[in-house]
Amino acid sequence: MAVQDRQQVTIYEVAQRVGVSIATVSRALRGTDYVAPETRRRVLAAVEELQFRPSRLGQSLAEGRHAANGIVFPDLSGPYYSEVVLGYEEVAAELGNSVLILATHGRPDPSRKVLELARRVDGMVVMGRTVADDVVAQVAEIGVPTVLLARAAVGALDTITADNDTSARQLVEHLLEHGYQRFAYLGDPDSSPDVTDRYRAFREALTDAGRKPPRSPVRCAFDVDAGHRAARRALAGSPRPQVLVCANDEVALGAMAAAAEQGLTVPADVAITGWDDVMAARYAGLTTVHQPMRELGATAARWLQDRMAGSQAAVRREVLPTRLVVRTSCGPHDAEKEVRG
Amino acid sequence: MAVQDRQQVTIYEVAQRVGVSIATVSRALRGTDYVAPETRRRVLAAVEELQFRPSRLGQSLAEGRHAANGIVFPDLSGPYYSEVVLGYEEVAAELGNSVLILATHGRPDPSRKVLELARRVDGMVVMGRTVADDVVAQVAEIGVPTVLLARAAVGALDTITADNDTSARQLVEHLLEHGYQRFAYLGDPDSSPDVTDRYRAFREALTDAGRKPPRSPVRCAFDVDAGHRAARRALAGSPRPQVLVCANDEVALGAMAAAAEQGLTVPADVAITGWDDVMAARYAGLTTVHQPMRELGATAARWLQDRMAGSQAAVRREVLPTRLVVRTSCGPHDAEKEVRG
DNA sequence: TTGAAAGCGGTACCAA
DNA sequence: TTGGTACCGCTTTCAA
């Protein structure tokens, strides 16, 4: 007699209870039109008494909007995506939208899921290497406002990225100042747009400085173990590289472990750098690049809101600044350059 | 002529195009009833041609379900929640449910948002210290199946937690073996159910061993900076504590920094332990406790699915095992006990 | 100020 | 095998 009454209270029951039409109840509840104060009072009383909660589905169907938006990302391991998603959620929630998440987990074909997501939201953010461009285009074409984050622009969609170029160049310059000659790059430029950019900038910076970049990157996935294995391969080369420039911090941390295993000291025997400035980087003394992750997510949420509100303004493209964080893994310095990481 | 036709194609247009009723289109699409092969073919052709995508809202309203579920957590910074959410998302998605997230960000009163979330899902998971018990009870009463994760049971709701007790005791025992006498606890037992348990078990273990537990914990928030400040306070005490048992790894890492600043060596001058086994812990040599985070989320998702499917089985309560990870920060050992953290 | 009723876009039962 | 139609629960226009 209590467990089974899953029957939701509807607006009809409220109306009946008060002795008015459902239209009046609706008005009283949303304050969209004038309702006699006395009537409103009675409606609210009945709502309270019956514990009426309007059905979101009925509401959305009638309003023609979900009041929700989604975000698609590859994964959530590692602080990078978590922080971005968090920044996104915070702003989206503030703007009154619920947030749907979709992790592609590196699955072969997430387009079905992405399209499915598109049917449940008023707008969505698509991050990095998750789905093919044509799927993104399709989503946009359906009429779902879309903002791209940390991936190359597609059509006329708003796109926000972090600056891989400048920092990669600064990093190389810094390493050159240390006097290094032989560089290796650990990471797969095909694995994500960010790495593609970082690797390209890395090569260009070396070339511009009159150095010869490595023939090819030592390809590996984004995790510690992959970095460990890749570093082992790289360090087996002869002559041994003096610096391992890694696609991200996880890879770099794995590389540090590999170096230690081989009895190599960092940075005396081999220098190592990462990317992302995860918390562990600080404790490992890892030289890396800090990205404004929270800000990336927050900005995406705001832009999306504008588009959902119908803004037809020109396409927005923005590259948020990043910051080189010099610690000890890249070589000896006079003093610790970092104040409080 | 292309930008403005936000008009979604409806099932009516498909039906008209094919010259059948909407009922037939619906059947052809969901394969719920027999449809003449030829008819089905024509329907699918029209669907393709018109790029028809059924409205999720219409569908859900008619079906009486959202095909979505939610998860409420305090935050996403730090790997703990990220991993749990990821494990949850993965399973939920596999089971055909979209996932809505809600981060409470430690805001004063998230009950509005939680209730709002409850209107959009068929079931939800509520983690740790996010909302008051009565809100959870209310959500459950509304008829939204709810699973509790890492928080004390409420009513007859399924509850899954990680084992704080056993590990806390093991940890204390291990520290006692090191011969320490003076313990301090860094963290706020009121900040989360997990810390409440850990602190209690910590005290009990000391008491059981005939030692005197600290008069009170050194309260601090869950982040590195808070841990840093708390450690400074704790280390200023006289006599100085020999061990700082920290509520989680972030706090412990902050404490390590504080110790270093004061010229104290870990573990020679002061031992430090954490909780969670975040990536940085490995590189900091931090003795800590590993939790099955992914598994927590995944299990919650499965249980929720059962309840959403209408299971009236007895309340489920499960405590997943955790694992003490001994590294160097707790004191000298014959050999590194950890194989590959 | 309020009510009647037409949607919103589907699903599924009942007949044919 | 297919069609007609009654919902699902709410919003909003048009009249009264």
Automatic annotation (TrEMBL), chains A, B:
Keywords: DNA-binding, Transcription, Transcription regulation. Residues 9-63 form the HTH lacI-type domain. The keyword Transcription applies. Transmembrane segments: none annotated. PANTHER family: HTH-TYPE TRANSCRIPTIONAL REGULATOR GALS, LACI-RELATED TRANSCRIPTIONAL REPRESSOR. This is LacI family transcriptional regulator.
